[in-house]
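ARCHIVE CARD
Drawer: 12
Card no.: 0347
Subject: one protein chain, sequence and derived structure
Cross-reference: see card 0346
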Amino acid sequence: QVQLVESGGGLVQAGGSLRLSCAASGSIFAINAMGWYRQAPGKQRELVARVSSGGSTNYADSVKGRFTVSRDNAKRTVYLQMNSLKPEDTAVYYCNVVTVRNNYWGQGTQVTVSS
């Protein structure tokens, strides 16, 4: 059974920083991409950032220059460093791990940015 355990969400003032972590455990093999999506109230889930098995990254335009995604393959963990946070970054953030055969999601962690 595969589990993705997220941590690091919370409440922060605008301009502040948070770091999200997501650790994969269980029978998960051949991981390709790892990344983060978010969903704000009344909006669709959207890609925030992801990193491939080769280390290439891509970001939503709205977070470029402020967020950094990284991964530790030995720990099967993906991180999202979020700086210069804005109120519009408020959302539930979901970890996503894509393997050769499956697509896994975390339970979500709330990030709230106050103005």
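Annotation on reverse: The chain has a mean pLDDT of 96. DSSP finds no helices and eleven strands in the chain.
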